[in-house]
Amino acid sequence: MSKMSTSELRSYQQICGKNGAMLVIACDQRGAMRSLLASDPQQQSAISEHQLGLIKADITRYLASKASCVLVDPVCAVPQLVDNGIIARDTALLIGLDASGWDNSPEGYRLSRLVANVDARRVRELGATGGKIMVYLRSDQEAANRHNIEILRQCIDDFAREDLLLVVEFLTYKLDNETEEEYKEKVPALIYGGTKICLECGAKVLKLPYPGSKQACADITKLAGDVPWAVLSAGVDHATFLKQVADAMSEGASGVIAGRSLWKDCISLDRSATKSRLESLAVPRLNELQAVIQQYFHAPAHNQTEQVEHV
């Protein structure tokens, strides 16, 4: 297993709360965010990067300020979050490297893409605590992963040279020749296999889909060893996500990186409406999420902090 350097560990501590658990608000989506703001494809394409950036700023200001970290993209969100004084001084910042969407191979596999001209050095220049890379993996199809594993190794090596924290995420997906039922049956094995691939590539912190059950979460924790993993929300409803988080945290996960489950029905092109909904809907959800994390999380020794009273 790959262990964090001192610099990476310091950054990891900063993306965690005082209890040592990750609690990251993800709003690095572009395409998914446009689809939430408008149902018509033409209306979606008319939503500018500037408009998305304003929404991400509001999520950062009104929601992420109450968590330990925010995850944003380098296209719409930075450097404005820093330059305009939007991100709180004690909120850590992760920047996503993956471009929105994917390319299709002739065989129907998803080929991941990177945002142009954003590497570890650029992430550091933008004032970030670290980066995040997401790739698509089908661990049961070796041919599906060659391109994406190359991207993954490239990013992991780049961040290691810069001695900067990189969170590694993967998503799996249904193939055209599968039914929904066939794919659903494979998901736990696909998530286990994808996790194994990421670890073999040198991942030091993982962001993973919910693997399907408490036992599957325990299997991931055993596989990951000392590598911490956070469960992602994948846009499920809040009540469902709370149950998934309870499963993951009770079986050894190290935290949560949550986005749409918190804010998907809060965002609007009307910024006053976004602010109101974030404060009235998303923040209470975040508080409930924090309570579940607090109930189940047991910090590993290297993340525990001793509270010292100065007299």
Per-chain topology:
Elements: H1 6-15, E1 22-26, H2 31-37, H3 41-46, H4 49-62, E2 69-72, H5 80-83, E3 92-96, E4 103-104, E5 110-111, H6 120-125, E6 130-136, H7 142-162, E7 165-171, H8 180-200, E8 205-208, H9 214-224, E9 229-232, H10 238-250, E10 255-258, H11 260-263, H12 271-296
Helix pairs in contact: 4-12, 8-9, 10-12
| Gyration radius from CA atoms, angstroms | 19 Å
Structural class: alpha/beta
CATH architecture: Alpha-Beta Barrel
- The coarse silhouette is globular
| Mean pLDDT across every amino acid position | 93
Low-confidence stretches: 302-311
The helical percent reads: 40-55%
In CATH, what is the class?
A: Alpha Beta
Kindly describe this structure.
Helix content is about 45%, strand content about 15%. The chain is α/β, with parallel strands linked by helices. The chain has a single domain, classed as Aldolase class I (TIM Barrel). The C terminus is likely disordered. Helix 4 packs across helix 12, helix 8 packs parallel to helix 9 and helix 10 packs parallel to helix 12. Keywords: Lyase. InterPro entries: Aldolase_TIM (IPR013785), DeoC/FbaB/LacD_aldolase (IPR002915), LacD_aldolase (IPR050552). GO terms for molecular function: 6-deoxy-6-sulfofructose-1-phosphate aldolase activity.
What key attributes describe this structure?
single chain; TIM Barrel; alpha/beta; 10 strands
